[in-house]
Amino acid sequence: MIIREATTADFEAIWPIVQQVAAAGETYPYPRDLSKAEGERLWMHVPQKTFVAEANGRILGTYYIKPNTGGGGSHVCNCGYMVAPEGRGRGVATALCEHSQRMALELGYKAMQFNLVISTNQVAVRLWNKLGFETVGRLPKAFNHPGHGFVDALVLYKWLAEA
Amino acid sequence: MIIREATTADFEAIWPIVQQVAAAGETYPYPRDLSKAEGERLWMHVPQKTFVAEANGRILGTYYIKPNTGGGGSHVCNCGYMVAPEGRGRGVATALCEHSQRMALELGYKAMQFNLVISTNQVAVRLWNKLGFETVGRLPKAFNHPGHGFVDALVLYKWLAEA
């Protein structure tokens, strides 16, 4: 598996992943009927950079990196990760997250923040905690989950830089 | 003092307030050299609605309201408030915040979130706490303060709806 920056042409392979995650409505605050154009804007254009994990010419996962805010908050980045169904259980999310942390430092960031980790997404919470992200906030009933109704969302944060 | 929706023409009076807050670099994650065009985009165009507090034809303060995220998080709004120097000590921030909570419910939101309240801005923290906002998160060193260096930022949250 290699991780490389996504090209414009990669979006054809990225879109089914984003569409499926959006349609499920369980982990990302995207409209469940997200259009392809809006998906491309959110995943490819709004972010600073977008990457894909690829094996044997198949895209197994993807992540973006962007500043979380500006001005005095410019040293904190935000990333989002998605794994294709065929990439599950192969360490793709871990590989993407570790890559993104190195990329964050290369791009001059000092910390990484996840603003809305849905509390019911326990696989993600456990993985991010294991990779050194601390749960620094809990937003009561901040996410309307299609199966569970209003559930809490978590804010996760990791300081990456030496100082 | 009345609070009313801002018109395009109001930005001439709003801009000095936004510019001063941005230039100070102490409370908002805006570039300190924020341009007027970017200020207008951030305060007037990105938000869903923008309001002003006015007394005797002078604008004493302003706030915006917008969705904090989309999809399953669409019931949570985000607001930002700024008070002009001549509005200080006159209850303007309280009036704006109370107005914004009513407006949030009118617009169909159920909760309000402040994503980055700078921990050194104790006047704001105390006021929001007094107005029912709970500190639900602390982001370590998430803000680079011109006077204090890297300081923590707080996440504040209030559920507004009946259920």
UniProtKB/TrEMBL annotation, chains A, B:
KW Cell membrane (keyword) present: no
Domain of life of the organism encoding this protein: Bacteria
GO molecular function terms noted in the UniProt entry: acyltransferase activity, transferring groups other than amino-acyl groups
Keyword Repeat tagged: no
UniProtKB keywords: Transferase
InterPro entries: Acyl_CoA_acyltransferase, GNAT_dom, Mito_N-acetyltransferase
Boundaries of every N-acetyltransferase domain copy: 1-161
PANTHER family for the chain: ACETYLTRANSFERASE, GNAT FAMILY, N-ACETYLTRANSFERASE ACA1
Protein name: Acetyltransferase YpeA
Name of the gene encoding the protein in the UniProt record: ypeA
